[in-house]
């Protein structure tokens, strides 16, 4: 039988070898749990899902489920900008 002892609960001077061993084991478990949680947070699938959710919330209004007007305006502006660039480049190549 082991005593459940955390390092902060006992001092090295007053703890038995069994208590110290149990304290070390419990600390190792906590560290392993923390590492597992951190690995889960930086897993590529988790990061991709988080990025997709953030992008979705930028474009879609959560309350109505429709596309935000500012996202539509940005998309239209980008399309018009690319179209103007293509027309400008093709106009130069015909003159030259």
From TrEMBL:
Q: One matching Pfam family, short form?
A: DUF3618
Name the chain's protein: DUF3618 domain-containing protein
Q: Which organism is it from?
A: Brevibacterium picturae
The residues that cross the membrane are: 71-91
Q: Keywords in UniProt for this one?
A: Membrane, Transmembrane, Transmembrane helix
Which superkingdom, per the lineage? Bacteria
């Amino acid at each position: 039988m082991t005593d459940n002892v955390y390092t902060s609960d006992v001092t090295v001077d007053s703890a038995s070898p069994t208590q110290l061993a149990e304290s070390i084991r419990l600390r190792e478990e906590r560290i392993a749990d923390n590492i597992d949680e951190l690995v889960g947070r930086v897993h590529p699938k988790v990061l991709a899902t988080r990025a997709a959710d953030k992008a979705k919330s930028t474009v879609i209004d959560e309350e109505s489920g429709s596309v935000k007007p500012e996202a539509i305006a940005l998309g239209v502006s980008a399309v018009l900008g690319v179209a103007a660039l293509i027309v400008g480049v093709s106009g130069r190549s015909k003159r030259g």
